[in-house]
Design goal:
single chain; alpha/beta; TIM Barrel; eight-stranded parallel barrel; 10 helices; 16% strand
Length: 335
């Protein structure tokens, strides 16, 4: 991975990408009207659609489709891995915990586990035909033990052959200056282990939008610290329209945590394609970056119909979510 450019250059480049994405005719300009009962949805101003020169386009982004084990959390981890493979995925992202055969919830990977335990789970995944690409950190950067836990997560990821460790803060936001300090300390450790730290939105104005996290990432300014954009969380926690928000940080995105959201008939989060977020507009700014971008399918459930009754039902939802996103991306890149 090439060394990250200067803060000023990133801002200049962001402006160029934003204008290019708008020129592609895929971005919304009006605000998203939120509320507990209904929404006016997204609109596009035709005056924002102009031509784009081929010389301004980069190579198409390469998207890796990785289902999280998280949607299968009510079922054993082994069944989750088999279901994900059966749903047509070649990559997997480790979730948090699963209800195992004994009826108890067990962590996918304990925070204090030795790296060889992660290496063994990585081998299990590959034996099933799944390449593990992302794992949860399960610690907020503001926590007193964040450096210790994240350092061990980096070692676990490296042992398992996982490139990305997912980090996020509390729902009321984190301390940006503390995040900058700690990510600057962790970034060289991640680089030594060929691991990337990717932070996502999880509520709070200080760390809950792409724009807020972009300021932190630009200050850290390290090639092993990037963003995993979570449009569903931007929608859910802050009721912010993710379409204009992603334009402020598209050049920093190396992953997504995929979920959607609805405000009508009741506010909820759900799988991509079932909600009010227009994924064509959402992915337009990152469709031609030339980078490899990991899509971790975090919520694949349809809204309002309750939890899955069987792992086979999750299998079907996992397949439908992947096919939906594959069609969205193919359509954007071919247009």
């Amino acid at each position: 991975m090439s060394k990250k450019t200067s803060h000023k250059h990133l801002l200049d480049r962001r402006s160029f990408l934003k204008n290019s994405a708008l020129a592609a005719g895929a971005l919304a300009t009006s605000a998203f009207t939120t509320g507990s009962s209904k929404s006016d949805g997204f609109t596009l101003n035709p005056s924002d659609i102009t031509g784009i020169k081929e010389s301004e386009r980069k190579e198409p982004s390469r998207f890796i489709h990785a289902c999280m084990t998280l949607p299968y959390r009510q079922f054993p981890l082994e069944r989750a891995l088999k279901g994900i493979k059966g749903a047509g995925y070649d990559h997997v992202a480790w979730g948090t915990q699963h209800r195992e055969e004994d009826g108890e919830n067990h962590p996918v990977m304990p925070a204090d586990a030795q790296p060889d335990k992660a290496a063994e789970l990585g081998r299990r995944c590959r034996d099933l035909g799944l390449e593990p690409v992302k794992m949860f950190s399960n610690v907020y950067p503001d926590h007193d033990n964040a450096i210790e836990v994240l350092t061990n997560r980096i070692r676990q990821a490296s042992a398992a052959g996982i490139e990305q460790v997912l980090v996020f803060g509390a729902v009321d936001g984190g301390d940006p200056q503390l995040w900058i300090k700690r990510f600057k300390e962790l970034a060289p450790i991640a680089a030594d282990h060929n691991v990337t730290l990717v932070m996502k939105q999880h509520g709070g104005e200080t760390t809950g939008t792409g724009e807020a996290l972009a300021r932190i990432i630009n200050e850290v300014n390290h090639p092993n610290v990037w963003m995993s954009y979570d449009a569903g969380n931007v929608f859910w926690y802050l009721e912010v329209d993710p379409i204009p928000d992603i334009q402020t940080c598209s050049d920093l995105i190396r992953a997504f945590c995929l979920k959607d959201g609805r405000s009508w008939p009741n506010k909820t989060t759900n799988g991509p394609g079932y909600g009010e977020i227009d994924h064509y507009r959402l992915f337009a700014p990152v469709a031609f970056t030339g980078h490899t971008i990991t899509l971790a399918y975090e919520n694949i459930y349809p809204p309002y119909i309750g939890s899955p009754e069987s792992p086979e039902q999750v299998d079907r939802w996992a397949r439908l979510s992947r096919e939906y996103m594959e069609n969205v991306i193919k359509g954007i890149q071919e247009v």
